Amino acid sequence: MNLNRVFKSTLIAISLISGSVSLNAVTNDAQTNEASLYKPAKFKDLEFKDNYARATVLSALILNRFQFEKKPFDDKLQSLVFENLFKSLDVNKMIFTKEDINSFKKYESKILSYYRKGQLQIGFEIFNLYKHRLVERYDYAISLLDKGFDFKKNEEFVLDRDELDWPLTHQEANDLWRKRIKNDFLRLKLASVDEDKIKNTLRKRYINRRNTVARMDGEQAAEYFINALGDSLDPHTTYYSPSSAKNFDVSISLSVEGIGAVLQKHFEYGQIREVVAGGPAAKSKQINPGDLIVGVAQGETGQFEDVIDWELDDIVKKIRGKRGSVVRLQLIPAGTGMDGKPKEVKIVREKVSMEEQAARSKVIETKSDGKSHKVGVITIPSFYEDFDARKALEKNYNSLSKDITKFLNKYKKSGVEAVVLDLRNNGGGSLNEAAKVSGLFIGNYEKVVQVSSQNGDINVVQSRGVKQEWDKPVVVIINRFSASASEILAAAIKDYGRGVVVGSQTWGKGTVQTFRDLTDFLQKDVEYKDLGAIKWTIQKFFRVNGSSTQLKGVEPDIEFPSSVDNEKLGESSYDNPLPWTILRPAEYKPFADLKGSIAKLNTLHKDRIANSGSWNLLKKENAYRLKLSQRKSYSLNYETRVKEREEMDAQIKAFDKERKELGEINFNDLKLDDGLARGEGDLKEELENEKKRKENLDVVARESANIASDMISVTSGLNFSR
């Protein structure tokens, strides 16, 4: 086992918010077909296999020896792992009872030895009990639907039970579920859904979810067991089963060999959610959003397999395949209903770039100091890079830095004078790409971030392999969901005095993970089954000014209103985050001291928004969203909820009226609850809203462009060239 290879692997400033994958394994609740809807969920208890044991032993060894903050494998950790074995499955404490948990207490003092020895029996017993209990809970939920509910009674449904204990008895658990089901029923009733339709919708939903639980397999159980240990060490250490590892690779590379479509679950069907432009599905002109997949066949003559009631991941596995090979689909065309006549479509698989998830650019006209200016706004969803293609020396591999370079070159030719980088909701990605993108603005071979290893060694990551493509004003937008690689780029722009950072405080993820296949640590002359992969924290990163972004994140130079409760969301909200620390600053040369310029820009910004109806509306909507997000419980009394809904409806209509008068686009981010789960709503409406968000800039992006426009004159005497 060559463990030294760990530190030669590609480092990843791992995404905090997992991106979608394609064929996108954005897995919703799996559903079932009509024929099986009313069958009881029968299943055998899961049994573990040798490869699960091997994956467990290897994971425990790696985490014990190479975790950045080396925590002792002691009684304190054992207690935390034991707690996570239940909490990770039942975060809201509604499935297990206190008695269930106490029945496993005798194993708590031995938990870590089970990981070292690859003994998964306890983990599988807990997972099997979880399956049985959850099936029982859903069976109980289904039984309630025909009994009716007393909506005149004054009682509350608690949304967040994190600080509460598990129910003592099954009767207590059932009462929690009664309130949950009553709330689900009431939500649909408030949306004016017919009572019979409510019962049918909820019955189908619960049976689908129950049967999904029943089909959970040993691979999922092993993944859960290993991750109870990983989560106890730090929030970003994760074991990926073989299936999960493949999906992670797609999410970071934005490429996959398949048909070029994004799938979701729609009741018992796999449904086409999006068709990727330029991909095989788009080229066929026979596959459309909303189509339902009922069968998949391999090659020109292979027999069709009925995939109704399949897990989304399993459908995806059948559709993905080797480049150049043929896959055939049986599809019920969108809009024809579940009784529509299926059609057969033949597709030749290709390597597909997920353009819909890549960076995108828009140039707008702004005015500042009586002059018109062109400002380029680049929206960056993630720091993507096709690692395998890069290692294979493919010339045109997918990467963020390549895409941004293309945008900047177009800007230079078209007279763009300033750039806005929108990093909102960008959870991170490739550390290599964070350094390269920074280099496009600060120059080649400049120090971007300092990285501290477990042994105390400090490595400085530089912007290699690029040149400075942009020497004009830069504004970076951040928010609470900007994390990791986003924080590296924002901090580099800020510390070098290269641009201005606007928005709200970032997530505060200042750690670096590595992602490795477990078989890399085994003898190369022996063939092993795929054991999955592990991502673990091996380093901590620091800004060039010496400060870590861990917990504290990056603060904006100009603050915008936020709708997020920072105490509930962010690195600091985790149970066991690494602490904030500081290093000696690196030797680097800032372009300028922008304090005076920032003060002027902030004054201009405040003057502008003081008379901006759009900005005032943003502040009011954000304050309203924050208030809604902090709610912990809901009344289950019909009249009380009707009154609350009427008040909310009036507020939303007031916002919409004001938005219309201002000429602002309604992105439908704030609307009345329709009571539907994901995959049950109107796909056409969802896609139209997504399209509007991509094609139009919101008030935050536009005001950031105004600040960039102001920066042209305010910093005109400064030299941003290297």
Automatic annotation (TrEMBL):
Claim: Signal is one of the keywords in the record: yes
Pfam families: DUF3340 (PF11818), PDZ (PF00595), Peptidase_S41 (PF03572), TSP_NTD (PF17804)
Keywords, ordered alphabetically: Hydrolase, Protease, Serine protease, Signal
Residues in the signal sequence: 1-25
EC number: 3.4.21.102
Family, as annotated: Belongs to the peptidase S41A family.
Name this polypeptide is given: Carboxyl-terminal protease
Organism (species): Taylorella asinigenitalis 14/45
